[in-house]
Amino acid sequence: MSKDTATAPATERAKPxxxxxxxxxxxxxxxxxxxxxxxxxxxxLRFRSGEFVMIGLLGDNGKPLLRAYxxxxxxxxEELEFYSIKVQDGPLxxxxxxxQVGDEVIVRPKPVGTLVxxxxxxxxxxxxxxTGTGIAPFxxxxxxxxxxxxxxxxxxxxxxxxxxxxxxxxxxxASLADDPLIGEFVGDKLRYYPTTTREESPKMxxxxxxxxxxxxxxxxGLVPLDPANDxxxxxxxMGLNTDVKEICEAAGLTEGSNSQPAEFVLExxxxx
Length: 272
Ligand code: A2P
Known about the structure:
By secondary structure, the chain is an alpha/beta fold. It has helices at about 5, 10-15, 95, 135-140, 145-150, 165-175, 185, 205-210, 215-220, 240-250; strands at about 20-30, 35-40, 50-60, 65-70, 80-85, 105-110, 125-130, 155-160, 190-195, 230-235, 265-270.
């Protein structure tokens, strides 16, 4: 404890000072389980699209309560965007879901993660495979011109329980081809493959089943996964990650990392 803090008057001591605080600029609620928010960006924060940072609020004990969150905005954006689940008894998200414009959120400016373009060898086609809030890192990457410079085709696969849970990703994908900043990079390279598992929609079922029975590829007029051309990034529940990893390995793709780029990479989406 510094001398200043030790001698501060009681009124000042009572008001907690948030370390690394950023200001909420926008909050959008999608369902009673999902919301997104935007924050000012720390000047010192440089990151690669697809990485995550620790963010959070002060807990009841006055200590920062932090969780890993993928940054959903691209690296060039002057603000930060996040996409979060709401868990009613979750230590952080039970509080985070109530933030309003002007509130403060802690952002530790130390980005890390494996869902980065540099962790993959060059290829022709990129598959993003997500469930639920696992679409967040791809919301960042889909807005990065570098993705379209490196790949001829990008396929965004997103499986959710209900149609309303697809909206964040669906709106983003729909906006990109005409986006004034990156529309010319996106062109017709980005394809979207949404499925639901518990509510009627044009495509029902888990993306993993569609990969296993080949319908994902036939629906899109594509050949099955090919290690020579195809690259895969996976982000979702532990179950999704394990299942898609197995599918990728069965097709002859190997897992990459920052230090050893290969053909697929995965990361667990934050839950709770
Ligand atoms: P399901 O409804 O069959 O469990 P959650 O909301 O629980 O995070 O799940 C998000 C979506 O991910 C749901 O549609 C869920 O399907 C799906 N899902 C869960 N586990 C897997 C898995 N191992 N492979 C593919 N999809 C999965």
